[in-house]
Specification:
The complex is a heterodimer of chains A (497) and B (116). By secondary structure, chain A is mainly alpha-helical. Chain A has 23 helices and 2 strands. Chain B is mostly helical. The radius of gyration of chain B is 18 Å and the shape is elongated. Classes of the chains: A mainly alpha (497), B mainly alpha (116). At the A-B interface, strand 2, helix 1, helix 2, helix 3 and helix 4 of A face helix 1, helix 3, helix 4, strand 1 and helix 5 of B.
Chain lengths: 497, 116
């Protein structure tokens, strides 16, 4: 006797899947003789052993289909009812779906059982600690991630030696936690070591080698070294596209990162085109509310803002912020970044009160999360100062900009793009305060540095030249002003042509 | 739902009269069953046709239906069971592993195509 012939169950010939009417689905549960709880454990185990933990495109697509079944069958099971190996596999399903709370609960359970049964130093125990650290990291809980990674790294060095691939993985993880806490040069130093060793042992095209390259590129990016970042990012993107396929999540991440570099280089059309491709693919492959999709939407929005498409930018940013709050919480770093971005769009729209209110909140949160002198804190201080300036509160702007300038020079160095941007803003404030000599000196200094760091034709460089021209006009030096304005005009025409 | 249900059953396995008799008997059984007391007659009719079909199923098919009741009601793939059956992974809990193997074996005993 066959099932389909009774309409108890429908078979979809095309997808090779079954579906049951919800009422029959519920009713058939009541026909079960044995314990429902035991059956749940078995089914969860079947789901878990049906895939390896590898991350090929196929694996990831397959696991995505398992999410709703996992959620159904895990229902009332407690973490302690679940076998560690099963927990590890099920954790991977939740992890890839961006469901980090569920992942964390499973990984804590796996780690504790491993410690109890196998001991603190067993490789399986260390692997489970590693996974949990990765989840803390994704949740923005960098302190907890770092502490766990350090323990694992020390043990691996001792047990496996300095060059073992697992030891290198721990070093790379440590670098990521440094990088996220804005300690970029520490991260860079570690990643350079990891990259060299991986190239030597695994070759230039191994996924782990490409991953270290991508990570290293990001530390360049954060340090404002965009040319270096771009060179590495292009290599990683091309190799991943060829080796993993263009739909693989890692390929998408490298494309999205490159698009951000283009944006900061002022190459907005390139940036927009690439962001659009990544966003479309992320929505299709990961869904609308996946953390990666949200990051990509936020990045596209900031490209729109720089292009002057403020309505589009705002619509996207409001959406992203709402979803990030839901998915990650009000104090997650990604949420803070989203809030700061929306504030920038408000500012461009002339909604200065809204921008100020949002920036004050974000500033407080960054201070609490990373301290008073972290680059993220300084960045939002610099943005808030611009809001004051636009409101005509020149003295408030000046105080904040001077304080920020001292600190950014100390923390990021005097050639970092953020330092330069803040200095350029301060020059504007001086001009509007009537301190024309101070404005002129500062502008000239900034323009020289921007030409070297960002390039002659970069939008920020051109903007600073126009600002100096305005100062010249205020000084009555109309010829000098005109020379500068003509130069900017020519640059822009050349760029458009 | 109930109509499609009865239709499929009659078509394959009984003459219409036989079906009526079966159905009546099943309905009387259900009326005496405590769990179904207090349900309205239409609901009872639906349950009894499901029960009729269910009783005619062979054990692997029944088992499959029960497993499905713990999964999401849509998009249940054969692939998952096949992959689990072919998996090289062994659970460190041998009792659990045996039960899983046993369950997959029971499922495998039925016709390869459950739908035709």
């Amino acid at each position: 006797m066959r099932l389909g012939s009774h309409s108890l169950i429908e078979y979809d010939q095309q997808n090779h899947t079954y579906s049951i009417h919800p009422l029959v689905h519920h009713w058939s549960g009541t026909t079960m003789k044995g314990s429902r709880h035991d059956m749940q454990r078995l089914i969860l185990a079947i789901i878990a052993i049906s895939f390896p933990l590898t991350r090929t495109d196929k694996d990831i697509k397959y696991r995505r289909k398992l999410l709703k079944h996992t959620t159904s069958s895990i229902a009332s099971l407690k973490p302690e009812d679940i076998n560690p190996l099963v927990g590890m596999h099920i954790g991977r399903i939740y992890d890839e779906a961006g469901r980090l709370k569920e992942t964390e609960a499973l990984e804590v359970m796996v780690m504790e059982k491993r410690k109890r049964v196998l001991g603190d130093d067993h490789p399986h125990t260390l692997t489970s600690m590693d996974s949990l650290a990765g989840t803390y990291f994704q949740q923005g809980r960098w302190g907890e991630a770092e502490a766990l990674v350090l323990v694992v790294l020390e043990k691996r060095k001792l047990v496996l030696g300095d060059d073992h691939s697992d030891t290198l993985k721990s070093m790379r993880n440590l670098a990521l936690t440094y990088s996220s806490q804005d300690r970029w040069s520490d991260a860079e130093a570690l990643l350079l070591v990891v990259l060299e060793k991986r190239k030597l042992v695994l070759g230039d095209e191994h996924p782990d080698t490409l991953q270290s390259m991508g990570n290293l590129a990001l530390t360049y990016f954060y340090q404002g070294r965009w040319k270096e970042a771009e060179v590495l990012q292009v290599v990683v993107m091309e190799k991943r596209t060829r080796l993993l396929g263009e739909d693989h999540p890692h390929t998408l991440i490298s494309m999205g990162n490159l698009a951000c570099t283009y944006k900061n280089q002022g190459r907005l059309d390139h940036s927009e085109a690439l962001h659009l491709v990544v966003l479309e693919k992320s929505k299709r492959l990961l869904g609308d509310v996946h953390p990666n999709t949200l990051v990509e939407m936020g990045n596209l929005a900031s490209t729109y803002r720089k292009q002057g498409c403020l309505k589009d930018a705002e619509a996207l940013e409001v959406l992203v912020l709402e979803k990030s709050k839901q998915l990650l919480g009000d104090d997650h770093p990604d949420t803070l970044v989203d809030m700061g971005q929306l504030a920038s769009t408000y500012k461009e729209q002339g909604r200065l009160k809204d921008a100020e209110a949002l920036e004050l909140v974000v500033l407080e949160k960054w201070k609490r999360l990373l301290g008073d002198d972290s680059p993220s804190t300084l960045r939002i201080m610099s943005n808030l100062a611009v809001t004051y300036w636009k409101q005509g509160r020149y003295n408030d702007a000046e105080v904040l900009q001077v304080a920020t300038m001292e600190k950014t020079k100390m923390v990021l160095g005097d050639k970092h793009p953020w330092t330069l941007e803040n200095m350029a803003n301060l020059a504007n404030t001086y001009r509007d305060q009537g301190r024309l000599k101070d404005a002129e000196v500062l502008s000239a200094d900034v323009i020289e540095k921007m030409k070297r760091v960002l390039g002659h034709g970069h939008p920020d460089t051109l903007m600073s030249m126009l600002s100096l021209a305005a100062t010249y006009r205020d000084l009555g030096r109309l010829d000098d002003a005109e020379v500068l304005e003509v130069m900017v005009d020519e640059h822009r025409k050349r760029h458009e042509g | 739902m109930a109509i499609a249900q009865a239709g499929a059953f009659i078509h394959c396995h009984s003459s219409l009269r036989e079906y009526r008799e079966l159905y009546q008997r099943e309905r009387d059984n259900l009326l005496q069953n405590e769990e179904t007391q207090g349900k309205d007659p239409y609901e009872l009719a639906v349950y009894s046709t499901w029960k009729l079909s269910y009783d005619k199923l062979d054990p692997p098919a029944r088992l499959f239906l029960q497993i499905c009741s713990l999964l999401h009601h849509e998009g249940i793939s054969e692939e998952m069971f096949e992959k689990a059956a072919l998996s090289q992974l062994r659970l460190d809990d041998s009792e659990l592993q045996d039960k899983v193997t046993n369950l997959l074996n029971q499922l495998g005993k039925q016709d390869s195509d459950w739908s035709s």
